[in-house]
């Protein structure tokens, strides 16, 4: 079948909508957009895609192409090779004048397509149509391998790489790999310490523009991403997505070595390090290394002395938010994290997770030098000293040193302080 060239330009979506007998997928008919490289077997999909191009598509010199896959791709390649429309400001060339017009806006900074619900504006109408789904919550593009759905093709394409494990863009300084080159470029700044995106209202700066944008909401108080099932709203769409799993209970990312499952792929990646013992994030000022970048960031503050997390109930300050949260629970006495198998409750979720292993018998922290395994990472660290011979706990009354803090305490009680009469002084509270 030759691609249909008889219809008037710009009538591509109308042409397909008015087809009296929709084409069946079994006929192996494919459709290609005249304005970009989009190709699909879905007749309704090409209609939606053409509508998203809006006025730009009406300027197209060709209607949408249809035919067998080889015919459509051949014609698409032919149009890609013919690029008579040249940009005057850079070397780029285009098959259609409409694409050159859109491209010119990147040089001029023109963004005529404005969102009616937020300050964002776009150079192309199709980008505005995609953005509008952020507000409507529409996710028409469904993954064929898991229940997730997406508002735009690029997000679906990136997500599909998680199923195929395609992360072609690898970091030279750590084991991380990325599905997109732009993500690798952003990530590389964390190694170089580059933070080109500066906040205009405070001294903070960021490695990624998206992080600056999210940070700016702290100043404006804006929370554009609203949950449809409860009154909560969020500064970041990723936070909303994470929150939505609390309602659905969905955990599509399953660990292959234990029964755990996670709502997000990056949490599974982090969890896998408890099995492998991998600690790719190394401190530049001391020998410590960490499984998570956030732990390294918190640790670095012990060197710089920075304590950005301040208690509102007392003058105490902390290097990380988890310590502040734990400290606040000491004021309130609150223990919100309750064990489902016994009456115990905890101030921190991490403490509950450690406690749960006493019920499950799980010991994810394995020694690399002997068969022993432990429920807590701190126990593994203590155990490793039996192999290294390290004795960091030194007695202040004699030259002895110990590999465990408990051994030092026992030493004080049975040897150095034995026979000494130590008075316990009652604590007096001043009433003045």
UniProtKB/TrEMBL annotation:
It is found in: Nucleus. Residues 85-112, 113-140, 141-168, 169-196, 197-224, 225-252, 253-280, 281-308, 309-336, 337-364, 365-392, 393-415 form the C2H2-type domain. The keyword Mitochondrion does not apply. PROSITE patterns: ZINC_FINGER_C2H2_1, ZINC_FINGER_C2H2_2. InterPro entries: Snail/Krueppel_Znf (IPR050527), Znf_C2H2_sf (IPR036236), Znf_C2H2_type (IPR013087). Keywords: DNA-binding, Metal-binding, Nucleus, Repeat, Transcription, Transcription regulation, Zinc, Zinc-finger. The keyword Zinc-finger applies. One of its GO terms (molecular function) is RNA polymerase II cis-regulatory region sequence-specific DNA binding. GO terms for cellular component: nucleus. It comes from the Eukaryota. Belongs to the snail C2H2-type zinc-finger protein family. Belongs to the krueppel C2H2-type zinc-finger protein family. This is Putative c2h2-type zn-finger protein. It comes from Ixodes ricinus (Common tick).
């Amino acid at each position: 079948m030759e691609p249909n060239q008889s219809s008037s330009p710009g009538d591509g979506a109308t042409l397909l909508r008015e087809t009296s007998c929709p084409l069946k997928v079994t006929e192996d008919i494919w459709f290609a957009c005249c304005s970009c490289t989009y190709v699909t077997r879905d007749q309704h999909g090409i209609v939606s895609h053409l509508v998203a191009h809006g006025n730009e598509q009406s300027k197209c010199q060709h209607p949408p192409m249809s035919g067998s896959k080889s015919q459509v791709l051949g014609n698409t390649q032919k149009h890609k090779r013919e690029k008579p429309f040249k940009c005057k400001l850079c070397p780029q060339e285009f098959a259609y004048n409409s694409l050159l017009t859109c491209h010119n806006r990147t040089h001029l900074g023109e963004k005529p397509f404005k969102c009616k619900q937020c300050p964002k504006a776009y150079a192309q109408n199709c980008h505005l149509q995609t953005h509008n789904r952020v507000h409507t919550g529409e996710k028409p593009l469904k993954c064929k391998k898991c229940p997730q759905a997406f508002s735009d093709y690029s997000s679906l394409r990136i997500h599909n790489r998680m199923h195929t494990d395609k992360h072609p863009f690898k970091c030279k300084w750590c084991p991380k790999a990325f599905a997109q080159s732009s993500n690798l470029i952003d990530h590389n700044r964390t190694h170089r310490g580059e933070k080109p995106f500066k906040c205009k209202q405070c001294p903070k700066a960021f490695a990624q523009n998206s992080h600056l944008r999210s940070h700016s909401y702290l100043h404006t108080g804006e929370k554009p991403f609203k949950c449809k099932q409860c009154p909560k709203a969020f500064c970041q769409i990723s936070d909303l997505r994470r929150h939505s799993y609390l309602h659905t209970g969905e955990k599509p990312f399953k660990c292959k070595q234990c029964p755990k499952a996670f709502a997000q792929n990056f949490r599974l990646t982090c969890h896998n390090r408890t099995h492998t013992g991998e600690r790719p994030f190394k401190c530049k000022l001391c020998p410590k290394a960490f499984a998570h970048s956030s732990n390294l960031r918190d640790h670095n503050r012990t060197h710089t002395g920075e304590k950005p997390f301040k208690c509102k109930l007392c003058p105490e300050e902390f290097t990380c938010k988890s310590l502040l949260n734990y400290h606040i629970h000491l004021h309130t006495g609150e223990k919100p994290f309750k064990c489902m198998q016994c009456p115990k409750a905890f101030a921190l979720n991490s403490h509950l997770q450690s406690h749960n292993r006493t019920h499950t018998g799980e010991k994810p922290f394995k020694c690399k030098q002997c068969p022993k395994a432990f429920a807590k990472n701190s126990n593994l660290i203590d155990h490793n000293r039996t192999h290294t011979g390290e004795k960091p706990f030194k007695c202040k009354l004699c030259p002895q040193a110990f590999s465990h803090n408990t051994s030092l305490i026992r030493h004080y009680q049975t040897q150095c302080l034995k026979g000494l009469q130590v008075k316990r002084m009652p604590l007096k509270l001043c009433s003045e």
